[in-house]
Amino acid sequence: MSSSLSQSILTLLRNANDTQDSITHCTEVFLSHYSSSSMACSLTWYEHVLSTPHSPPSGSLLTPFYVANDVLQKSKRNLGANYLEHMSPYLGKAMGHAARLCDAEADKRTKLKIRNLAKLWGDRGVYSKRFVVELLKTIEEYKPGG
């Protein structure tokens, strides 16, 4: 993936919000790069999550996870497993990072929404139950004071 595409994806994610139109637009851009750049788009998504500030009740931390959810479900349903394979190494790390931020801000609500996304992926067969259990462990690993 060219650096200009990477920059475009980062700009897209930075400008995204929690509205369905915004999430759908991001998903369409990700899916347009399904064959050629899904691995690089997944890495760019992860880098964005790591750089996203969290100030509750802002949705800025949730937005990239909502985009990932939409990309993963639509990819699996309509295209295949590229995004599932390429995002899976980053999801646990991204969810763990988000959990730490939520704990630091005492934001249980956002952490619960991220946990619910992981559970949804197991319920809908996007990822195996075993993988979802690992994601949930990563999220719960970051308990305040623990």
Give the key terms.
146 residues, mainly alpha, 7 helices, globular
Characterization of the model:
This protein is an all-alpha fold. The chain is built from 7 helices and no strands. The protein starts with a helix and ends in a 6-residue tail after the last helix.
Sheet/helix structural class: mainly alpha
Number of distinct helices = 7
Order of helices and strands: HHHHHHH
Distance between termini?
40 Å
Q: Say what oligomer this is.
A: single chain
Give the integer mean of the pLDDT values: 84
Strands, count: 0
What sort of overall outline do the alpha carbons produce when their principal axes are compared?
A: globular
Radius of gyration: 14 Å
Query: Tell me about the biggest sheet?
Result: none
Percentage of β-strand residues: under 5%
Helix-residue proportion? over 70%
Which stretches of 5+ consecutive residues score pLDDT under 50? none
